[in-house]
């Protein structure tokens, strides 16, 4: 189920098109207004790393993942792909609600699967927490499969 996030919109367009290019997704998402193709390309690269899409030719992709993957699995896969991430990164990539991602991160921190990786300053002047996976292989085996 696609949500309101950018990745959710890209995911919905990819599911609808079945086989597509970056340009096809851009056209599907913004027929009357300008959308940066590089933003779509970044999202498709993350989806490719997570196994949601397959590359069938240079620049041509096919949607591969069934739509019934649990939100927790999608969020954990996004964490695994990023390695070092903010909660906003995971919200964008997994199409999960922010409160759910924050709860998931707190639970993984308490269990020792994640560690606090510092703080970064966003353009708005806020401090944003960065997290890292402690043991990537163990994390993948326990949360991403």
Instruction: Classify the helix fraction into a percent range.
Output: 40-55%
Looking across the biggest beta sheet, what order are the strands in? 1-3-2
**Total beta-strand segments:** 6
Q: Globular, elongated, flat, extended or rod-shaped: what is the shape? A: globular
Using only CA atoms, what is the Rg?
Answer: 16 Å
CATH topology of the largest domain: Arc Repressor Mutant, subunit A
Structural class, judged by helices and strands? alpha+beta
The CATH class assignment of the largest domain is Mainly Alpha
CA-CA gap between termini: 20 Å
Question: Can you characterise this structure?
Answer:
The protein has 145 residues and is α+β, with helices and mostly antiparallel strands. It has 2 domains: 6-63, Arc Repressor Mutant, subunit A (Orthogonal Bundle), CATH 1.10.10; 71-144, Arc Repressor Mutant, subunit A. The protein is 52% helix and 19% strand. The protein is built from 7 helices and 6 strands. The chain has helices spanning 6-17, 22-29, 37-50, 71-82, 87-94, 98-110, 136-144, and strands at 19-20, 53-57, 60-63, 84-85, 114-121, 127-133. The strands form 2 sheets. A 3-stranded antiparallel β-sheet has the order 1-3-2. It has a 3-stranded antiparallel β-sheet with strand order 4-6-5. The protein is globular and about 45 Å long. 27% of the residues are buried.
Supply database-style keywords.
three-stranded antiparallel beta sheet; alpha+beta; 145 residues; Arc Repressor Mutant, subunit A; 19% strand
Write the layout of secondary structure elements.
Elements: H1 6-17, E1 19-20, H2 22-29, H3 37-50, E2 53-57, E3 60-63, H4 71-82, E4 84-85, H5 87-94, H6 98-110, E5 114-121, E6 127-133, H7 136-144
Antiparallel strand pairs: 1-3, 2-3, 4-6, 5-6
Helix pairs in contact: 1-2, 2-3, 4-5, 4-7, 5-6
């Amino acid at each position: 189920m696609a949500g309101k996030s950018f990745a959710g919109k890209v995911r919905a367009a990819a599911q609808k098109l079945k086989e597509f290019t970056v340009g096809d997704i851009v056209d599907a998402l913004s027929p009357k207004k300008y959308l940066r193709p590089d933003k779509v390309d970044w999202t498709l690269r993350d989806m490719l790393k997570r196994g949601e899409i397959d590359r069938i030719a240079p620049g041509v992709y096919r949607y591969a993942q069934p739509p019934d993957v649990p939100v927790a699995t999608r969020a954990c896969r996004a964490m695994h792909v990023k390695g070092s991430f903010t909660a906003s990164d995971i919200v964008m990539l997994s199409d999960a609600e922010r409160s759910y991602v924050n709860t998931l991160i707190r639970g993984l921190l308490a269990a020792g699967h994640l560690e606090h990786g510092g703080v970064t300053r966003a353009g708005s002047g806020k401090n944003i927490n960065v997290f890292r996976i402690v043991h990537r292989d163990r994390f993948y085996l326990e949360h991403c499969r």
